[in-house]
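Explain my protein.
***
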Amino acid sequence: MSDASVPTHMKSWVISTNGERMDVALTDAPVPEPGPNQLLVRMRAASLNRGEFIAGHGLHKPGAAKPVGMEVSGEIAKAGSAVTGFKAGDKVMGRCPGAFSGYALMDAREAIAMPSHLSWEEAAAAPLAFMTAHDMVIAQGGLRKDEWLLVTGISAGVGVAALQLAKAIGAKVIGTSGSAEKLRKLKALGLDVGIETRKGDFHEAVMKATEGRGANLVINNVGGSVFAETIRALAFEGRHATVGYVDGVLEATVDIEALHQKRLRLFGVSNKLRTAEQKLTSVAAFKSDVLPALAEGSMRPFVDKIFEFGDLPEAKAYMDENRHLGKIVLRGVG
């Protein structure tokens, strides 16, 4: 794509915080110019990430609206003067602030060559979900073959990616969801045990499934309302990842005795305070541990529904109503 074919202006979705409400609006904006180490990417698809639309996650400060969107797939329209390894016309995917725009700037170090057999929508659904899942399941969680993983709120994009990664390494997976239909569909991806609940009442079922040992690793997508139960459900030397709090409950009581006696390890997963260099470790892990499986087709991103570019409010509402299983994707403007 030549510079002459890049327009000067584009449509761009912005988000603003109004109390506990997050509002999106479609605006006109100038097409940005890439810096020396950046890529200007023409957006073909971009996926929604729930944390960006929850005021309590603190990703947006009150005040002026800012571009929204965090990951994209698209074609490079222009490469910065210091970029090597990529050129105009290459298909890429990756983390990209302001992804819900006609064009967006991507740090060239974050760019991932797009596997040829993936659709734009699948490629946009892969990077952040699998980077986050890898952090929890492998990098920090150290899940091993034949161990048990428990995921609360498993139908979310990160939950589905964690299920896929866990099954790829030979682990067994228990998932909770308020939807029996979603749990049924996840059986096709290898879910071993589905527990239909939105409450912290699954300890007994987990113990039954694991023959009284408990889960070796817990991923808590739900939040404080189920935290105490996830601690109860952990096995000796269990690991506990906190990644979301869609319930809005930001405080929970820690059972110090269980933490002590069972030698538990608790950790959080968030990119908010990580440096650019730290974030690049997750990109490298994705390229080494996930990208080969995506490239050969043994693992595919799970896209639930695709919305047109102008329908971000409807896509957000669909997500807010917890109707999705896996990822929701916004299709590019053309």
Remarks:
- The chain has two domains: 3-126+301-331, 129-268.
- The CA atoms of residues 176 and 195 lie 5 Å apart.
- The chain has a mean pLDDT of 94.
